[in-house]
Every structure is written in C-alpha cells, then in structure tokens.
From TrEMBL:
Keywords: Signal. Residues 47-116 form the DUF732 domain. Pfam families: DUF732 (PF05305). Residues 1-24 form the signal peptide. This is DUF732 domain-containing protein. It comes from the Bacteria. PROSITE patterns: PROKAR_LIPOPROTEIN (PS51257).
Amino acid sequence: MRTILATAITAGVLIACGIQSAHAAPHSGPAGNTAGSANSGSARNPADLQFLEQIDFGAADYATQDAVLDLARAECAFLDTHGNTPANRTRLAESTRKAVRYPYLFLDAAVKTICPWHRL
C-alpha cells in the first residue's frame, strides 16, 4: 500500500506541476521512433497505449506517462497480492483520490488494459 501511495503522490506532483502540458510523447514505431533523443522514453506496448488513451494521457510527455503507468501497475500488483475484491478496489481508488482526478475510472482502465485477469 505504501508503494501505491508513493506512486500516487509522484503522479499527482507531476500532473499538478503541469508536466502533462509539456511536449507530447510520440508513439513507438517506425514513424514515431525517437530512439536516442533526449526525451525518448521506453517503447510502449499496446496495452500501455490503450491505457494511456483511455485515461486521456496519450499525448502527455513521457515522464507523466511513466508516472501514470507506474501507478496503474502498482494498483494491479496490489490486486495480485491482496485479491480482487470490491473492498480492495474501493481501498485502492480511495488511496489515490488526491493524485488522480477520477480514481475509480483510473482503476477500471488499469484493470481492463494492464491486468485484465482482474476483470470482475
């Protein structure tokens, strides 16, 4: 739970500081490949891209995308460890309320794309 809270705080700080409005992160692939450039991030897999689009962060910079992806993965890891119960989903969403504008929709998008084995 502490990892999720720390990741949520980091994501919240990045978003609150306006990093989302910085340079758009290009999609991976031949046309958008920026390997070796100063702001290039790791390549995004299709699940990551789908998640970013669902939460409307597809055009955000890599630092913000990385923060929200880390938070989504931390939420999935919590469900892996503690179980995918309605109580745990509520606990997760409420623990990220200060960092995420719509925490229940964020968690739902994470489950649908990052850890679909937790779909109810």
